[in-house]
Design brief:
phosphoprotein, alpha/beta, 6 strands, WalR-like, six-stranded parallel β-sheet, about 220 residues, about 55% helix
């Protein structure tokens, strides 16, 4: 039994985060648990490009990154490979991000403020094909379900939410179109509906809404 355990190959992880120090810390933490980071990426675009060659057991994906961001990257990875196992990481305290990324197909969600051992437990659970949501996030999701979530972002479709977040982070319509592979007119249509649903008239007001509900960070 001991020999068989020793021969079990390590879990192979793709680590996606735009902060090099964060990746280094995670890599060292996972290495102590015999979990191997086989490749790293600092954008969602790079993760989508590298994934087919690497085929990791688990993708650990930060949601807040420049460019397309983690949520869109999760959607694209799972569109390419429905069997991809993704653990989303986020510093956001809202319920909209975990709900949307889990709905998009991620198996796990872990708040970055979780204890270090939670990352190891989450990676191992997702590698087994099991769902994992940290206790704080699970409680927030349950509370929102029971009380009714007043977060205005829940009014938006998946694509509208992506456009909204990108715009709130300061991207132009042209940049959003390029990032999400959409036409300018399509982005404009989504933006019009976002403004209507959220009662905002310009980019500054949309940014305020996103900050107010913890959907972006300064």
């Amino acid at each position: 039994m001991t020999q068989a355990n020793q021969e079990t190959p390590p879990i192979r992880v793709m680590l996606v985060d735009d902060h090099a120090l964060v990746r280094m810390g995670f890599r060292m933490l996972l290495a102590d648990a015999q979990i191997e980071v086989v490749t790293e990426a600092d954008t969602g675009e790079q993760a989508c490009q590298d994934y087919p060659q690497v085929r990791p057991d688990v993708v650990v994906m930060d949601l807040s990154m420049p460019g397309m961001g983690g949520l869109e990257a999760v959607r694209r990875l799972l569109a390419h490979d429905p069997k991809a196992r993704v653990l989303a990481l986020s510093a956001h305290e809202d319920s909209a991000h975990p709900r949307r990324v889990l709905r998009a197909g991620a198996l796990g969600y872990l708040a970055k403020r979780s204890a270090p051992e939670a990352l190891i437990a989450a990676v191992k659970a997702v590698a087994r094909g099991e769902r994992y949501v940290d206790a704080h996030t699970a409680q927030a999701l349950a509370t929102a379900q029971i009380e009714g979530d007043a977060n205005p972002a829940e009014l938006l479709s998946e694509r509208e939410f992506s456009v909204f977040i990108q715009l709130a982070r300061g991207q132009t319509v042209a940049q959003i179109a390029a990032t999400l592979n959409l036409s300018l007119s399509t982005v404009g249509s989504h933006l019009y509906r976002v403004k209507q649903k959220l009662g905002a008239s310009n980019q500054a007001e949309l940014t305020w809404v996103a900050l107010r509900w913890g959907l972006i960070q300064v």
